[in-house]
Amino acid sequence: ELAQRSAVEAFSRAGEADDEGTRSSSEAQALENRALELVGEYEEQGFRTSDLWVRLGGAERTLEDRREASASAGARGNGAKASTQAKAALRAAERQHQELRQQYDAEDAKRGRLWGEVEAAWAASFERSLLVAEHGVTARRIRREAERLFEEAEVRRLRAKQLAAEADVAGRERAEAERRRVALLTEARAKFGCAPGGRFLYWRHADD
Q: 0.90 exceeded by the pTM?
């Protein structure tokens, strides 16, 4: 009974390990799907970042041209109006370049964060996959142990049944032997006029 109860408990633990494996598998799949979604977002973010990089490069070239134009206007002495216009164009180019630089830095940082999230999701999914394998191994080990316990319980049950049958036979044989002993002692008393004891027969002596 104890072995059988232990086997039932072992099967219950195996079921729990299977349930844990199923949960870990679902979590791993969800994390893998999330990683794929993040990869898509990362690629889109890469396109936006690349576009800003191209625009930033153009703004840098424009800024260099405006700086040269402003310097040339001042050096040639083309008049206050031309110099003022050149300086205004330079300031506008500087503002545009600064704005694009800030946008690019922000979008590039976002791209980096997205990739970090992708790697984290993949790592978490891999860990969950390892847990799935571990729970599977644990469940199989526990089931083998439960099967061994059930076999042991069956052997013990059959042995107990055999012993009970043997004890019953021995009891009947002992009762039959006792019945025959009593019958023989009774017969001896009648035939020989003795007093039967537990192991010997006794006769009264004539002088007693």
A: no
